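Hi again,

Forgot to attach this to my earlier email, sorry! This is the prediction with adenosine monophosphate bound. I've pasted everything inline since the attachment limit keeps bouncing my files.
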Amino acid sequence: MNVEVILKAKGADVTTITSSETLGAAVELLHKKKIGAIVVVDAGRVCGILSERDIVKALAAAGAEALDLPIAQVMTANVVSCKLSDTIDQLMGAMTGGRFRHIPVIEDDELIGIISIGDAVKHRIAETEMEAEQLRLYIATG
Ligand code: AMP
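Structure tokens for the complex follow:
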């Protein structure tokens, strides 16, 4: 199973924000959309990712004033992305190795989706169950 299959099931909707907007605006968006990370896009290009962890870190360092900071000062600029052809195992490896839970999907410089660790685990479990069922059938029918 690969990223293309996951995106077909969950859709291509990605919440984005620009790097000059404030952390407060990002907090409102995360809450409204019930998500854990926002992809930062300037002039049509992915330039960062901001997750709830970054916001907690900024609040711990600067207190409530952090909410007025521009996202550019708080986001992670080196974004690890994936392609439609990447496998779930590759994604899970990247997430485990990089200690993050979100990976934007980028094809030809265009942002076309986002995969969370929840999406990856859900599809990995479905895949494992399918394999187990096939084995059961194979054993039962000889
Ligand atoms: P998360 O586990 O996604 O909440 O993110 C944990 C930390 O990793 C935060 O500092 C994020 O900005 C960063 N992060 C999240 N996703 C990515 C990614 N795809 N590439 C690089 N850094 C990321």
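The chain has a mean pLDDT of 95. The helical segments are 3-10, 23-33, 52-62, 88-98, 117-141.

That should be everything now.

G.
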